[in-house]
Amino acid sequence: MTETLLAFFKAMADESRLRIIGLLAQGERSVQELARALDLKEPTVSHHLAILKAQGLVTARAEGTTRWHALDLAVLEQLSKRVLHSTTAKVPLPRGGDAAEDKVLQGFVDADGKLKLIPASRKKRGVVLRWLMRNFAVGRHYSEAEVNAAIQERHWDSATLRRELIGHRMMARKDRIYWRLPEADWKAGGEA
C-alpha cells in the first residue's frame, strides 16, 4: 500500500498534472483542448497524461483521429477506500489498565492514536505517560533520538514528554541513553 500511495502522490506532485485532473473532472478532453486551456505544448500535455495513465487515473478512447481523455473516478474511489480502510483498521483504541484510565485516554487520544494535548492534571498526565510507556521495552536501551521518535508517533512535543517520563521515574537516562524503569519505581498516580 505504501508504494501505491507514494506513486500516487508523486504523480500528483505537479501543478500541471493537478490542473489536468481538474479539467478532466469536468469532462473528457483531447490533448489539444488541454494544451490550449493550460497554455502548454501538446507534447508536454501528452507527457503528463502518460504519467497519470500509468497510475490508472486517466483513461483514453479513440474517436477517429482524436483521443479523448477522461478521469477514472472509480480508481480514485477505490484508492480512497483502500487508504481509509488500511489506516482505520490498524489504529487500536487506547486501552488503559482499567475503566477510569480508558476514560482518560479517550479524552486525550484521538482515533489515530495521537495525543491531542498533554493533560494539566497530574493524575491524568500519569495515565497518559503510562500509556506512552507501552512504546518502550523492558531491558532495552534507547538513544535520545529513538525516544524522541517513539514519542513523536503520539505527540509532537517529545522534549516535554521525555522530561515527564524521567520526572515520573518511568525512564532513566545517562549519557543520552534511556531505559525503562520497573513499574514498581514509577510514581503512583502520576504525582511529580
Structure characterization notes:
It is a single chain. This protein has 192 residues and is an alpha+beta fold. It has 2 domains: 2-76, Orthogonal Bundle (Arc Repressor Mutant, subunit A); 99-190, Arc Repressor Mutant, subunit A (Orthogonal Bundle), CATH 1.10.10. It is 53% helix and 13% strand. The chain has helices at residues 2-12, 15-26, 31-38, 42-54, 73-90, 99-108, 122-132, 144-152, 158-167; strands spanning 29-30, 58-63, 66-71, 141-143, 171-174, 177-180. Strands 1-3-2 form a 3-stranded antiparallel β-sheet. The longest helix is centred in the middle third of the chain and has 18 residues, at 73-90.
Task: Summarize the helices and strands and which ones pair or pack.
Elements: H1 2-12, H2 15-26, E1 29-30, H3 31-38, H4 42-54, E2 58-63, E3 66-71, H5 73-90, H6 99-108, H7 122-132, E4 141-143, H8 144-152, H9 158-167, E5 171-174, E6 177-180
Antiparallel strand pairs: 1-3, 2-3, 4-6, 5-6
Oligomer state equals single chain
**Biggest sheet character:** 3 strands, antiparallel
Question: Cα-atom Rg, whole angstroms?
Answer: 26 Å
Strand content: 5-15%
Give the number of helices.
9
User: Which segments are poorly predicted (pLDDT under 50) over 5 or more consecutive residues?
Assistant: 87-94
CATH topology group of the largest domain = Arc Repressor Mutant, subunit A
* Helix amount: 40-55%
Extended strand count: 6
